[in-house]
Write a structure and sequence with these properties.
Rossmann fold; binds iron/sulfur cluster
């Protein structure tokens, strides 16, 4: 899924991550869990790309490969002319500042024995990003940037609320002066009342610091306000990618439609029928040869001749910037109008 008219900030090409699950008596791997399987994606400078899917679909694994917490099993990660997946640990360290991660759990991601000032200043000091005498000012500036008082620098993480801790995590990521931040479900552990504040903060910081985001989330309601484009993953593969407005107005993949139907709507006049998925999720250890969604798909009966159970559908562009992976779109068959929206 690439756009040849623009130069991406980062390009993931045929990226895969398989985790060994079992070995034989000789120590050879006999089964693997296919967390991410042949994913291709461009993220452009300044954009916020929302990556959505249910637990275990591989979205967090994609983010962890981008920040080098996981090494890809196959594929390439192109960033500023270099394939990050092929760099040695030492070479990669020189590039690590540019891509940062905001963790899901603000409670577990901060060292409880360090003050907030130490947590934020540590990467600045280790990477010598500013002269030593300017570190304190830099920490105060970052705390202010995320809406916290500079006086909080001597407090420990347990003295903060969940939302404030996530702000500290954001300040720590900003300390490295990154160009791209992988936001791994940054609001899922927070109270609903705090979620909007953190999302607004991330939007403001994107403007102020010229950041690019990969925003990982569980549901389409969270990424709606912050993303420019949205990708939907299912069992290790992208099933639909589109500009945000297009995806919410004209979802094409049956799984995207099911996710959208699950978003609570307060206005009764705008409520649509909830699509309840039946059937079991296929195993990522032994995924089916055909479409990964086939075991739960309510739409495949709409195309009796489609090879849903035998051939993997490709991600194809069906309108400018709108990609979908579904046999219903093969060979010009546009029968999706018959499906619930
Ligand atoms: Fe459903 Fe077939 Fe499309 Fe897969 S390819 S989403 S099984 S219709």
């Amino acid at each position: 899924m690439t756009d040849t008219t623009r130069e991406p900030l980062i390009r993931l090409e045929h990226l895969s991550k398989f985790f060994p699950m079992d070995t034989d008596v000789f120590g050879r791997t006999t089964s693997v869990l296919k967390a991410v399987d042949d994913l291709t994606l461009d993220i452009f400078p300044g954009e916020a790309f929302g990556l959505v899917g249910e637990s275990g679909c591989g979205k967090t694994t994609v983010g962890k490969m981008m920040v080098d917490l996981y090494r890809p099993t196959a594929g390439e990660i192109w960033y500023e002319g270099q394939d990050l997946a092929k760099l040695s640990k030492r070479e990669r360290r020189g590039r690590c500042c540019d891509i940062q991660l905001i963790f899901q759990d603000p409670y577990a991601s901060l060292n409880p024995r360090m003050t907030v000032g130490e947590i934020i200043s540590e990467p600045i000091r280790i990477n010598r990003l500013v002269p030593r005498e300017q570190i304190a000012d830099r920490v105060g500036y970052l705390l202010n940037a995320v809406g916290l008082s500079a006086n909080y620098r001597n407090r420990f993480p347990h003295e903060f609320s969940g939302g404030q801790r996530q702000r500290v995590g954001i300040a720590r990521a900003l300390a490295m002066q990154p160009k791209l931040i992988v936001c791994d479900e940054p609001v899922s552990a927070l109270d609903v009342s705090i979620q909007a504040q953190v999302l607004n903060l991330l939007s403001d910081l994107r403007e102020e610091f010229g950041l690019t985001y990969l925003f990982i989330a569980h549901g389409l309601n969270v990424v709606k306000h912050i993303s420019d484009r949205v990708g939907v993953m299912y069992l290790g593969r992208l099933v639909e990618v589109a500009p945000k407005r297009e995806l919410y107005r004209n979802p094409l993949h049956p799984y995207t439609k099911a996710l959208l139907s699950a978003i609570p709507v307060t206005n009764p006049a705008k409520r649509t029928q909830r699509i309840l998925l039946e059937g079991d999720v296929s195993s990522p250890i032994d995924p089916p040869p055909g479409c990964r969604f086939a075991s739960r798909c309510y739409a495949k009966s709409g195309c009796a001749s489609c090879a849903c159970d035998t051939a993997m559908p490709e991600l194809v562009e069906v309108s400018p910037g709108h990609f979908v992976s579904c046999h219903l779109f093969d060979e010009g068959k546009r029968v999706l109008d018959a499906m619930p929206r």
